[in-house]
Amino acid sequence: ETGVTQTPRHLVMGMTNKKSLKCEQHLGHNAMYWYKQSAKKPLELMFVYNFKEQTENNSVPSRFSPECPNSSHLFLHLHTLQPEDSALYLCASSQGGQGAASGSKRYEQYFGPGTRLTVT
Amino acid sequence: GESVGLHLPTLSVQEGDNSIINCAYSNSASDYFIWYKQESGKGPQFIIDIRSNMDKRQGQRVTVLLNKTVKHLSLQIAATQPGDSAVYFCAEKNYGQNFVFGPGTRLSVLP
User: Terminal CA-to-CA distance of chain A, rounded, Å?
Assistant: First the structure.
């Protein structure tokens, strides 16, 4: 176990549905990330949060809406998705932040197991 | 733009042999790199990292080599075991806390 959990592990949804993915980290980290992993592309960064503030939106379509209520929880709200959005969605966390642990430990990301999303 | 790519998409090795997985990166300003291992049904798992001011770093059965002249990164696994079978990714620290990941190499360990 990496200390990062994701629910659900599998999700099938229609293009008109609204669903949410949940991520929780038990590591006391300050930064959290959403990644998309599909068969045809390398792991793609979607969003980055530092101390609950969004610091990166990697040109992600608005049908994906992240929410970070606190440093331990991260959500990805989904609505009107397309079949090409089917992929494994991975959450990660790292110590991050300014003045956090020195050196490379600040950047080491711990990944959850992912949610396998299928859009029909 | 920056890109991180792998020379070999698949690699098969005999159990007990050493494995070498390669990665090329294009951003000469990158100062930090990580190797991840991803087993089936799991998220990527940190293996080892290296900063750009180093050429080599060793862990338990793993060694990462960095050649900044040719922008090349490699992961060496000694005495490869069946449990090493997985997809291996290199990741390049782009800016801030953001990383660019390579497409991955699938390592298969043959009995």
Answer: 31
Q: Is the dihedral of CA B94, A41, B37, B75 positive or negative?
A: negative
- Within 8 A of B96 by CB-CB distance, chain A residues are 48, 55-56
Q: CB of B87 within 8 A of CB of B106?
A: yes
Task: Tell me the pLDDT tens digit for each residue of A19-47.
Answer: 999 999 999 999 999 999 988 788 899 99
Among B41, B46, B97, select the one facing A96 at the smallest CB separation: B97
Predicted confidence (pLDDT) per residue in A65-116, tens digit: 999 999 999 999 999 999 999 999 999 999 875 544 445 667 789 999 999 9
Whether B4 and chain A come into contact, CB under 8 Å, resolves to: yes
Closest CA to A3 of A108, A79, A100, A83: A108
Burial readout A85-99 (b: 16 or more C-beta within 10 A, e: otherwise): bbbbbbbbbbbbeee
What is the distance between the alpha carbons of residues B13 and A117, in angstroms, rounded to a whole number?
A: 33
Distance from CA of B41 to the nearest CA of A (A): 7
By the CB < 8 Å criterion, does A99 face chain B? no
